[in-house]
């Protein structure tokens, strides 16, 4: 009788204990596009992002997070692969046509899936360009399955053609809005995507709002006893500067402060980047950020309704930044902080204590961090690193420098950033900035005799990094003599 009672207790109680002990966290990753890190509330009080502010207050802010490339495709592929652009199997240094990530080289979602989580990606992917994946897979579903994804809704961004076939284009078509939205966007892209004016779509019909709605629906449909990893990739605040509805007028351009590294000579009346135009662009840009923040709020509420919000790992980041007039430039593709640095915040109650880190990290580190958090096993050969040792206070840093790479001609451009200095080389010359003393990068020290040794040190750090992060297919090889001797030793 006692044995029967023991069995009943064992069979009923033990699974509950295992479930409570082994419950893996839900993971929510929110990726914005072209978000200048200087326009976060923890760096700029003119920004209005209350939902992101709350996440940041409850988590860790990484103040020195850098994209592996300051342009969309290579940055996003780095996240999927855990590799730098210069690694074999990646080797994409800019937005490219005729490229897709081979599933065997892009294991992020498979690693997470193998750990027992349902995997989903909703929103912009931008891993592929061209139809080459169709040569190996019969349809997109087979391709995504090979990547380790259980669910995908690829929303490439606002359509500028009535021939769009994605879910958002279909939504606009069903509502009789596709022709108007596509025509407006086509005109913006042709004439100038930085000309700020409201979208012809309402907020409820705007692409980010639509994408967020798909994500909320996905969260609501997931079984609560099955952990999930959901990546929501929004297109904003990427141009065109077409903030919809109230977001187009949320910020008064005249009340905005332009940073000191927006050159005065470019702010003269009549110049393409005069003071009035630059502030108007910034106002619309901040409006799109506010829209993203409200989308974040919708996702947070969905997670709270699911009941796992305070046990979930939440990550907010971006693929790259946006110059927004700094140093006289717009768009991305440069190694100035506005373009190459990205926001990165991680919230995981009881696991990550609120703090800020100045350690140089890479955006692609999000991948191994997730795998680490869910108790998974990272595919060997990754150069991305889990940030949990920093986020949990076990370590102050993981690497001596962060790097970034971009280029479509020889020599390729490369950047290195350590605790204090930033060095880069382009096709013509080298640059050196003391980012600690000169955060707006207004004084180039590369030609300064007193900084000659620092320049050499940064060159050496970059070279050492490149020598240390090459894919090595010979790693672990044992000569035949060694193998034979080890085999004989085992027999004894």
Task: Write a brief structural summary.
It contains 14 helices and 14 strands. The protein has 492 residues and is of the alpha/beta class. Helix 8 (207-221) runs parallel beside helix 9 (275-306).
Please characterize this protein's 3D structure:
The chain has 492 residues and is an alpha/beta fold. It has 2 domains: 25-404, Alkaline Phosphatase, subunit A (3-Layer(aba) Sandwich), CATH 3.40.720; 416-468, no CATH class. Helices cover 34% and strands 14% of the residues. The chain contains 14 helices and 14 strands. Strands 5-4-6-1-7-8-2-9 form an 8-stranded mixed β-sheet, sandwiched between helices. A 4-stranded antiparallel β-sheet has the order 11-12-13-14, covered by helices on one side. A two-stranded parallel sheet has the order 3-10. Helix 8 (207-221) packs parallel to helix 9 (275-306). It starts with a helix and ends with a helix.
List keywords for this structure.
2 domains, eight-stranded mixed sheet, alpha/beta, 14 strands, 492 residues, single chain, Alkaline Phosphatase, subunit A, four-stranded antiparallel sheet
CATH class of the largest domain: Alpha Beta
The total count of strands amounts to: 14
What radius of gyration results from the CA coordinates? 24 Å
> Uncertain runs with pLDDT below 50, 5 residues or more?
1-21
| Strand content range | 5-15%
Total number of helical segments?
A: 14
Structural class: alpha/beta
Please give the CATH architecture of the largest domain: 3-Layer(aba) Sandwich
Arithmetic mean pLDDT: 91
Distance separating the two termini: 51 Å
Q: What is the CATH topology descriptor of the largest domain?
A: Alkaline Phosphatase, subunit A
- In spatial order, strands of the major sheet run 5-4-6-1-7-8-2-9
């Amino acid at each position: 009788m006692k044995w029967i009672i023991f069995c009943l207790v064992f069979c009923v109680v033990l699974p509950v204990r295992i479930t409570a002990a082994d419950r893996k966290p839900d993971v929510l990753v929110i990726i914005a596009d072209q978000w200048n890190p200087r326009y976060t509330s923890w760096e700029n009080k003119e920004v209005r992002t209350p939902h992101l502010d709350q996440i940041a207050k409850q988590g860790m802010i990484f103040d020195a997070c850098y994209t592996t490339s300051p342009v969309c495709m290579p940055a996003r592929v780095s996240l999927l692969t855990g590799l730098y652009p210069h690694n074999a199997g990646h080797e994409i240094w800019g937005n490219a046509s005729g490229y897709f990530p081979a599933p065997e080289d892009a294991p992020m979602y498979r690693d997470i899936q193998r750990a027992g989580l349902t995997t989903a990606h909703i929103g912009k992917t931008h891993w592929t360009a061209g139809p080459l994946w169709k040569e190996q897979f019969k349809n997109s579903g087979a391709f995504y399955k090979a990547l380790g994804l259980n669910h995908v809704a690829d929303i490439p961004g606002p359509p500028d053609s009535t021939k769009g076939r994605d879910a958002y284009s279909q939504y606009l078509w069903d509502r009789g809005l596709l022709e108007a939205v596509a025509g407006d966007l086509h005109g913006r892209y042709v004439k100038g995507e930085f000309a700020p004016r409201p979208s012809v779509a309402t907020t409820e019909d705007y692409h980010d709002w639509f994408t967020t709605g798909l994500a909320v629906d996905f969260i609501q449909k997931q079984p609560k006893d099955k952990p999930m990893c959901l990546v929501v990739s929004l297109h904003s605040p990427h141009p065109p500067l077409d903030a919809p509805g109230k977001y187009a007028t949320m910020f008064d351009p005249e009340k905005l402060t332009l940073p000191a590294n927006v050159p005065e000579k470019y702010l003269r009346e009549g110049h393409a980047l005069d003071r009035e135009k630059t502030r108007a662009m910034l106002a619309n840009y901040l409006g799109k950020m506010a829209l993203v923040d409200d989308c974040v709020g919708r996702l947070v509420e969905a997670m709270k309704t699911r009941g796992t919000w305070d046990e979930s790992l939440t990550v907010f980041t971006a693929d790259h930044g946006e110059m927004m007039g700094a140093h006289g430039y717009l768009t991305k593709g440069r190694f100035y902080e506005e373009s190459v640095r990205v926001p990165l915040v991680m919230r995981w109650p009881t696991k990550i204590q609120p703090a800020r880190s100045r350690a140089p990290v890479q955006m692609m580190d999000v991948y191994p961090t997730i795998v680490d958090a869910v108790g998974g096993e990272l595919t060997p050969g990754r150069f991305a690193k889990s940030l949990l040792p920093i986020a949990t206070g076990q370590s102050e840093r993981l690497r001596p420098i962060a790097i970034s790479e971009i280029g479509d001609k020889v020599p390729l451009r490369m950047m290195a950033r350590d605790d204090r200095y930033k060095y880069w080389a382009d096709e013509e010359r080298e640059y050196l900035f003391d980012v600690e003393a000169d955060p707006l990068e207004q004084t180039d020290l590369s030609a300064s005799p007193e900084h000659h040794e620092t320049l050499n040190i940064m060159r050496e750090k970059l070279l050492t990094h490149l020598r240390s992060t090459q894919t090595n297919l010979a790693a672990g090889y044992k000569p035949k003599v060694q193998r034979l001797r080890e085999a004989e030793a085992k027999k004894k």
